[in-house]
């Protein structure tokens, strides 16, 4: 009863709608810029049109590449992001942004990045949040939806999602390779020794260890620094320094800037109100604030739906990263349970996979991977067992259409993890053409015992 009382009190707390409005604008504009950048660099064609074959995620095989219509998909995603920023037909635009962005993400696992997953989750949360009730085209056109105050939980669910990302990324760094051997930073940092002024430091061993330990401590502590009023400014300075340095050292796109802007949601409502005030004066926007103070109030039924919906959502986010415990072997080697778990830049894998296709009649072919895959696809496939299996099935079907009777597919796959000596990853005696994808452990992976 006491817990229920605290829950009821919390659900009645309100905050300024400006907080969610600033987040909506920032998210929409960053995604709009990201898509334009993706388009202008020619990556749409390189990643989603040029490849002959794709590697869909297990369970999402219905997500198909769209060929030249991929440009329409990206155009829809860009338009949706801009409409979200403006708060124009917000709910429709937010659903469209979530679906289009996530569809793009699911086309090919070769392009998987943690921050794509993060953006999809944030967009899904934003579908259900009232980010359009303040400083939006919707609120200007329809004064009845305008509200100055919204429930505090509408902001806190975003904070919680950000905190989960950071804390789980920090927990993932608590391993011997990262903390005791400074790997893979010991491999990556010397490659940037040509940077002006500080480049020479990246050759020094103590710098590798310093970056490793600071990275772990940063991830584990930053949400708590941002939550506390006394340490918030210090925490945000750390966010900016960390992510700017990360963007300079590693080619990870817009992710650092997304995290820099996202961290602003931890600042008080007055801070966001000032941002909107400056924005309104600078752009000479009409006054979008109504007379008096209006509070958004959800019905008891709606609150129940939200409460249980978010409980399920966050329970999944808290449990998913630990699913790797259900599998034997080294996680970084098998990658069973690796994706969707906030393990950010934790390993360096390099591999080589030579496939052989044969049948009972004596036909035999050594596969030239470049005839089937792009350079990126081949690189990613060679070190990830589930992609090796998918590629084996692609080869099976291809050679079956070329006259092979019940073709068998075998692979000699050698992989080096974090600079260690290369080892056999896949049992070369297993016919992968007969193996099926599932959530079960892949027994044909040669386990890494170190």
Question: Helix and strand layout, with pairings?
Answer:
Layout: H1 2-11, E1 14-16, H2 18-40, H3 43-48, H4 70-86, H5 90-107, H6 114-127, H7 137-141, E2 149-151, H8 153-172, H9 176-180, H10 185-188, H11 205-227, H12 232-249, H13 255-262, H14 269-283, H15 300-319, H16 331-334, E3 349-358, E4 364-366, H17 375-381, H18 385-400, E5 408-417, E6 423-424
Antiparallel strand pairs: 1-2, 3-4, 3-5, 5-6
Helix pairs in contact: 2-4, 2-13, 2-14, 4-5, 5-6, 6-8, 8-11, 11-12, 12-13
Please mark out the parts with pLDDT under 50 across 5 or more consecutive residues, or reply none: none
Span of the ends, CA to CA: 50 Å
Compressed to H and E, one letter per element, the order equals HEHHHHHHEHHHHHHHHHEEHHEE
> Rg, please?
25 Å
Assembly state here?
Answer: single chain
Name the strands of the widest sheet in spatial order: 4-3-5-6
Arithmetic mean pLDDT: 93
Question: Characteristics of this structure?
Answer:
6 strands, 4-stranded antiparallel sheet, alpha+beta, 18 helices, two-stranded antiparallel ribbon
Explain the overall architecture.
The protein has 450 residues and is an alpha+beta fold. It folds into three domains: 128 residues, no CATH class; 146 residues, no CATH class; 77 residues. Helices cover 52% and strands 7% of the residues. The protein contains 18 helices and six strands. A four-stranded antiparallel sheet has the order 4-3-5-6. A two-stranded antiparallel sheet has the order 1-2. A hairpin with a 5-residue loop joins strand 5 and strand 6. Helix 4 runs antiparallel to helix 5, helix 5 runs antiparallel to helix 6 and helix 11 packs across helix 12. The longest helix is centred in the N-terminal third of the chain and has 23 residues. The chain is globular, with a radius of gyration of 25 Å.
């Amino acid at each position: 009863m006491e817990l229920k009382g605290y829950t009821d009190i919390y659900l009645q707390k309100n905050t300024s709608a400006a907080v969610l409005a600033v987040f909506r604008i920032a998210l929409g504009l960053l995604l709009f810029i990201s898509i334009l950048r993706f388009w202008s660099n020619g990556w749409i064609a390189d990643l989603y049109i040029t490849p002959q074959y794709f590697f869909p995620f297990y369970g999402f095989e219905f997500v198909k590449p769209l060929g030249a219509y991929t440009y329409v998909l990206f155009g829809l995603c860009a338009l949706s992001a801009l409409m979200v920023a403006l708060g124009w037909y917000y709910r429709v635009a937010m659903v469209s942004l979530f679906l289009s962005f996530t569809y793009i993400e699911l086309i090919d696992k070769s392009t998987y990045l943690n921050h794509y997953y993060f953006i999809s989750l944030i967009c899904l949360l934003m579908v259900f949040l009232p980010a359009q009730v303040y400083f939006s085209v919707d609120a200007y056109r329809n004064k009845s939806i305008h509200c100055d105050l919204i429930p505090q939980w509408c902001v806190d669910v975003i904070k919680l999602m950000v905190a989960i990302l950071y804390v789980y990324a920090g927990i993932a760094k608590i391993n011997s390779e990262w903390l005791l051997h400074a790997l893979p930073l010991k491999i990556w940092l010397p490659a940037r020794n040509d940077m002006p002024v500080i480049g020479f430091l990246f050759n020094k061993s103590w710098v590798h260890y310093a970056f490793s330990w600071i990275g772990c401590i940063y991830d584990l502590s930053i949400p708590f620094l941002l939550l506390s009023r006394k340490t918030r400014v210090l925490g945000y300075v750390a966010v900016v320094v960390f992510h700017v340095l990360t963007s300079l050292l590693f080619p990870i796109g817009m992710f650092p800037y997304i995290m820099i802007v996202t961290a602003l949601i931890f600042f008080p409502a007055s801070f966001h109100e000032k941002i909107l005030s400056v924005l309104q004066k600078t752009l000479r926007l009409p006054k979008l604030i109504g007379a008096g103070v209006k509070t958004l109030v959800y019905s008891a039924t709606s609150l129940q739906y939200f409460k249980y919906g978010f409980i399920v959502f966050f329970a999944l986010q808290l449990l998913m990263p630990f699913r790797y415990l259900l599998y034997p072997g080294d996680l970084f080697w098998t990658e069973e349970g690796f994706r969707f778990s906030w393990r950010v830049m934790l390993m360096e894998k390099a591999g080589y996979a030579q496939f052989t296709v044969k049948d009972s009649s004596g036909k035999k072919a050594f596969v030239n991977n470049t005839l089937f895959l792009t350079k990126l696809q081949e690189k990613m496939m060679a070190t990830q067992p589930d992609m090796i299996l998918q590629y084996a099935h692609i080869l099976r079907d291809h050679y079956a259409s070329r006259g092979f009777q019940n073709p068998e597919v075998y692979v000699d796959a050698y992989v080096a993890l974090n600079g260690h000596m290369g080892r056999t990853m896949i049992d070369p005696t297993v016919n992968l053409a007969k193996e099926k994808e599932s959530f079960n452990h892949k027994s044909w992976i040669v386990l890494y015992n170190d």
